[in-house]
Amino acid sequence: PLDKLQVLAEESFGGIKGSGVMQSPSLAWRGQNPFPPVPAQNGASAAWVNVVPVADRRSIALSWPIVFHDETDRQAWINCKPYLHVSFLLGHEGETSLLSVFRRKGWVNGVLVGLVREDDNFAMLRMSFDVTNEGLRQRDAIVEGG
Fold this sequence. Notes:
single chain; 146 residues; 21% strand
């Protein structure tokens, strides 16, 4: 029962002096975009980052930062969990899904969509495709949705 656990916790840790309630240091950054826009080439709104792999792996990842401007935004995010809906829709593997379309074209083997980071002032949603060699050549088409 909860009352017995509380007594045990107070007996075990009650003598430890605290410094009061500490706020997370990241709260000072609330409302600031942790990923400011990168000047893109030729007026594009995205930036490519090419990495030399140490393993034979090909992937394309798209990330979207979601910035919480205040505690109300953050609480709405926590209560609503919109990333679950977006993850479900983008990560769907059914016959008419994005993954299915890309598989038929021979571009993609798999997709992962989900929250990769959640902090006091932002969250990061990422969609990652495991691509074939042809898919890597068709990266622009994949990013544009086929």
